[in-house]
Amino acid sequence: MKPVAVVGVSMSIGHASFTPHQSFEGNPKLTIHGRPVIVTGNAFQPHASPDLPPHVGTVMGTSKLTLGGKKIAMLGDNLTCMSKIDIGDPTFTVT
Q1: Non-local CB neighbours of 2 within 8 Å, separated by 6+ positions
Q2: 66 DSSP β-pair partners
Q3: CA 48, 53, 54: angle at the middle one, nearest 5?
Q4: What is the pLDDT along the chain (95 residues), one digit of tens a residue?
């Protein structure tokens, strides 16, 4: 069981020379402590590197649990920018 990713709490690990960045999109149909859960396709904040242009990473979920047909994001899921979700809400876990 892994913690679910929620808006305003979940962060990425960063990658290469890009620093960690926070989530900002979620699905308001399911909230944990008043914060929307993150699902496949939701974006994390744009981030940049001193030598590279900014970009946005979106979630590629792996959970078996879906919301509106999209997989719920959880700790360790990949982002399209080669980063991963590093923080989730431990009070709500899924597989």
Answers
A1: 74, 75, 76, 88, 93, 94, 95
A2: 71
A3: 45
A4: 899 999 988 999 988 888 888 999 999 999 999 999 999 999 999 988 888 888 899 999 999 999 999 999 999 999 999 899 999 999 999 87
**C-alpha of 23 from chain center:** 6
- pTM summary value: 0.90
Write down the H helix ranges in 1-95.
Answer: none
What is the separation, in whole angstroms, between the first and last Cα of the chain? 5
Structural contact between residues 83 and 13, judged by C-beta atoms closer than 8 angstroms: yes
Instruction: Tell me the residue length of the chain.
Output: 95
Determine the Cα–Cα distance for residues 54 and 60; give it in Å rounded to an integer: 19
Q: List the Cα angle 37/43/45 in 5-degree steps.
A: 110
| Interatomic CA distance for residues 51 and 1, integer angstroms | 38
Tokens found for residue 80: 């399209």
Two tokens, residue 92: 């709500």
